[in-house]
Amino acid sequence: MSDPRERSDAEASTTRSRTRRPRRAGQSGRGVRRALGPLAAGLVAGVSIFALVSGGVVSGGQSATAATSSAVTITAKQQDPQLDTAPLPDLSVSVSQTRGLVAQGIRLDWTGGKKSTAPSAGGNGGENFLQVFMCWGDDPQNAQRPDRTTCQYGGAGSVGATRDAYRNYSSMDEVPAADVEFTAPGSIIYPPYTSIPFIARDGTRVDSITRDPKTGGKTINSAVDVNANQFFTSYTTNEIPWVGSGDDGKGSVTFEVQTAVQSNGLGCGNPVTTSGATVGASCWLVVLPRGTSDNGSTNITQSGLFADSWQHALSVKLDFAPVGAGCPIGQAERQVAGSELAALAVASWQPAVCNQKNGSVYSLITSAESDALLSAAKNAQAPLALTSYALTTEGKDPLTYAPVALSGVAISLAIDRLPNPNDKTVPQEWKAKARTPFRGVNLTPRLLAKLLSYSYRSSIPTGADQGYLTGTNEYNITRDEDFLAVNDPEWRAQDLQGAAIADVIVPQGRSDAARAVWKYISSDQDAMDFLASKPDPWGMVVNPWYSTNADINPSKVAFSLDRDDFPKADPVEVVPKNQAPINLVTWRPYANDLSAIAYLTLRGDGQGPGQWDPNTVPPKYGKNPRMLPGSQRLLGLTSAAAAARFQVVTASLRNPSGGFAAPTSASMRAAADVMTPAGAGDRVVAFDPKSSVASGSRDAYPLTMPVYAATNPTATDPSLRAAYADLVRFAVGTQAQTPGTAAGELPDGYVALPAAWIEQARDAADVMQNGPRPSSTGESSSTSGAYIPSQQTAVTTRAASSSAASTAAAAGAAPSSTDSAMTAASGASSGALAGAKTPEDPDGGALGAALPLSVLAGLASAAGVPLITRLRRRVT
Fold first, then answer.
1. Which residues contact 874 (CB under 8 A, 6 or more apart)?
2. Lowest mean pLDDT among 8-22, 105-119, 189-203, 379-393
3. Residues 583, 571: contact at Cβ < 8 Å?
4. The pLDDT of residue 127 is above 80
5. How far apart are CA 326 and CA 355, in angstroms?
6. What is the DSSP letter of 673?
7. Where are the alpha helices (DSSP H) in 502-604?
8. Is residue 151 within 8 Å of 265, Cβ to Cβ?
9. Which of 48, 291, 334, 377 is the residue whose CA sits 20 to 30 A from 152?
10. Segment holding 353, helix H or strand E
């Protein structure tokens, strides 16, 4: 279905080893399992993603300092007992975190490698590379090393990375002694066959060798596939079968750490109680160096678990926070609804809050913030609303707003270098970096508009009529002169293909995050000119279905940027012969949420349909395999907190001053310092790219967003208001505002609140609990404690900030040195929080039918287009 140029790397990365056993009699049942495998894998992947926000974590963990100190360096010189035959004897690998782990990413950086060679189409797994994976059990003979039968390895199915193979030996006498136990004798036709079984933490054994209990003889059980089983497949495994080093022997990669929620076979983090103390079950991280040949072969074609290779494995123990709720049974449950931006903070705070005296269990249901606000304003039993914008109402806003978090929206990326090997003008130093990841990229509002409007050719289904895109529209962003003008010259040497760098993976549904992105784009004149169908300086034009010029938009309705969603407005559709239709939704599916997108980025999963399989019931598109390190290329829209958790690279965005800023703590704090009123009587502020103070802040990250807790102190049930006030007080207290990984602390990707915001939150909590205070006019007021950045109140505000400074310092929140800059702010309007379709929204045309079709196709295949329907899930 897809462009062959865009599929070659992914297909090559999942090619099965040619030395694996051929199909034999008795494999008929295996075909059925393979037919069901993608469905099960898709469902498992979906469930895994929903578990990511809570991560299975809620108690234990380490502080930020402890997390940093748990970084470990492992070396071949320290661990390899056969250093004289080691493929990479000078290898030294730094692991960023080894304690207090959850479902997250950890960073591996190494030196002492050798220039790597990528896997070849001819069946060679490559040369001088690393494999990275996890195991759960200790070696019975050496507790300082993992047991290879407990390793999640082989699921990727690539050459040199399977658990089994016919050996390059003529008889059993040549098989290494350590492998004999796992080897079946050969025959006249076949040499000996070795298969390392997988033993899950619950004791289940997956083994393709059958042992006769009477004679001890061993035969091959072709019905069992040790590389794709009920515990892991190519869709769920976290192993990295190939990651290379540059000419200098250095390299880096982010590795996905899985808990028992994502991999029950490994069971990492399962609660283990000893002497009344509960901890998470530990696992092993293994870094396996592979050279140029091993296991009796002249190159790398066989398993890294075979003895000749396994003896050189480097490993380190990983300690996990225990998986589970961690809250006392029987506690009252209080619901919180709205912003996903606060989800990881709430997940961290939850176990600390609920274990306090008279504590409550707070369940976060992520949903459209505008809906949560409307409910909070009118319903006495409404959940506490989490929002970044104020309620849009024609009358008086009855809500009280307490700032509880400061984070932002981020653009994640996983793009590996692929310089054009045939271009003789490309410097050798750039060619030497082939298959290594880019560690940053610059984006402007216009470039983001191009991605979100599906204006690059590869974002449109292959085979569709693209006549409405001009001849100057490139296939993806990396080929766009607009992109190359603001990025490092090395990008010009790349020859990258793929639909996942022709757009940006976005979440389905409405959100303040989407609203902030469109506001960022609409603040830039170049971006607005492009969306109005004016060609950019290089001649590229917007996909007309996203044109803000009604005369050009085929729907005859101007595309509106006053919105809080990411519509796939182009009704393009391709109907391959004897296959289901492909439209924009099935070609470039929505992700479930922002956190899921960070996870997809970490795994190199660009989504999109794979090959059509007419043999399933019903027939369906499969799922494109994940792009393995070295061949990754995708962009996604996520949160700063999720990006930090999964350790994915994020883009630097051009801010109003013309500088480029990434979502760091410093840049998000700089943005907070120049936020301006955005509604609710100045009780809610936002970063307004058009304000004069924002234009003067070169360090500010433009998609920084505050999160407010909001409730109606006059209508909400008093017991609920008291519980909500308790949560707010905890959220701005010392523990919750201290950066760290322990339960109750502030996770990475969040910024400690400015002192004045903490003061506002505490005053708002009092109003939530006790009701509005009478104003000087005798009327009730719910604005007490508001931080109002106006000239008239500047002195008062600064005094309040000073009085709160010591408190904020104790909470780990340094007082802002530029709070007074807010007094010069130009007012920011609070636009409508659109709910249903408005007249300004473009008519989707065939899109109305496209979405149901894509949903049905996705549900039918599960692995084909997962997570199409946005589901509500809780964080406890």
1. 363, 364, 365
2. 8-22
3. yes
4. yes
5. 8
6. T
7. 512-522, 525-531, 584-587, 594-603
8. no
9. 291
10. helix 343-354
C-alpha 260/C-alpha 267 separation (Å) is: 4
Average pLDDT over residues 594-623: 92
On whether the CB atoms of residues 129 and 245 are closer than 8 A, the answer is yes
The residue assigned the tokens 């002195």 is 795
Torsion-angle region of 615 (φ positive above 0: left; ψ -120 to 50: alpha; else: beta): alpha
* Dihedral pair phi/psi, residue 586, rounded to 5°: -75, -30
Whether 11 is in a domain gets the answer no
Quick count: other Cβ atoms within 10 Å of Cβ 778? 6
Structure tokens at 873: 């899930």
CATH number, residue 729: 3.40.190.10
* Closest to 244 in 3D by CA, of 134, 91, 122: 91
Whether residue 696 sits in one domain with residue 600: no
Nearest to 89 by CA among 291, 347, 340, 332: 291
Residues 6+ apart with CB under 8 A from 461: 1, 572, 573, 574, 582, 583, 584, 587
How confident is the model over 781-788, as a mean pLDDT?
41
Please confirm whether the linkage preceding 618 is cis (ω < 30° from 0): yes
The three-state secondary structure class of 418 is: coil
Q: Which H or E run contains 243?
A: strand 240-244
Q: Which pLDDT score, from 0 to 100, does residue 341 have?
A: 98
Q: How many domains does the chain have?
A: 3
CA distance 648 to 644: 7
Residue 597, Cα to own-chain centre: how many angstroms? 4
Same domain (yes/no): 522, 394: no
- Compute, in degrees rounded to 10, the torsion defined by CA atoms 799, 801, 802, 804: 120
What is the C-alpha separation between 854 and 847, in angstroms, rounded? Answer: 10
Q: Count the residues in the chain.
A: 876
Question: Poorest-confidence range of 21-35, 130-144, 217-231, 635-649?
Answer: 21-35
Rounded Cα distance between 180 and 163, Å, is: 14
| Structure-token pair, residue 865 | 């287009």
**Is 758 among the domain residues?**
yes
Q: Which of 472, 471, 475, 448 is nearest to 459 (CA)?
A: 475
Same domain, 521 and 588: yes
Residue 684 and residue 377: Cα distance in Å, rounded? Answer: 16
3-state percent helix, strand, coil for the chain, nearest multiple of 5: 25, 20, 50
Amino acid present at 487: N
Amino acid 324: pLDDT: 80
Rounded Cα gap, residues 876 and 873, in angstroms: 10
Structural domain boundaries enclosing 315: 60-320
491 pLDDT tier (thresholds 50, 70, 90): very high
Across 806-826, average pLDDT: 33
Pairing of strands 660-661, 652-654: antiparallel
Does 709 lie in the same domain as 575? no
CA–CA dist 402, 514 (Å, integer): 22
Question: Which amino acid is it at 652?
Answer: S
pLDDT classification of 290: cutoffs 50, 70, 90: very high
And the tokens for 661? 């800023």
Contact by Cβ (8 Å): 656, 761: no
User: What's the CA gap between 47 and 487, in Å, rounded?
Assistant: 38
User: Is the Cβ–Cβ distance between 858 and 592 less than 8 Å?
Assistant: no
The C-alpha torsion from 497 through 499 and 504 to 508, rounded to 10°, is: -160
Is the Cβ–Cβ distance between 244 and 436 less than 8 Å?
A: yes
Buried b (16+ CB within 10 A) or exposed e, 738-757: bbbbbbbbbbbbbbbbbbbb
DSSP state of 644: H
- Is 586 within the bounds of a domain? yes
CA nearest to 525, candidates 654, 413, 618, 417: 654
The answer to whether residue 759 sits within a structural domain is yes
Distance CA 64, CA 740 (A): 4
> In the prediction, which pLDDT does 829 show?
29
Kindly tell me if the per-residue pLDDT of 540 is higher than 90: yes
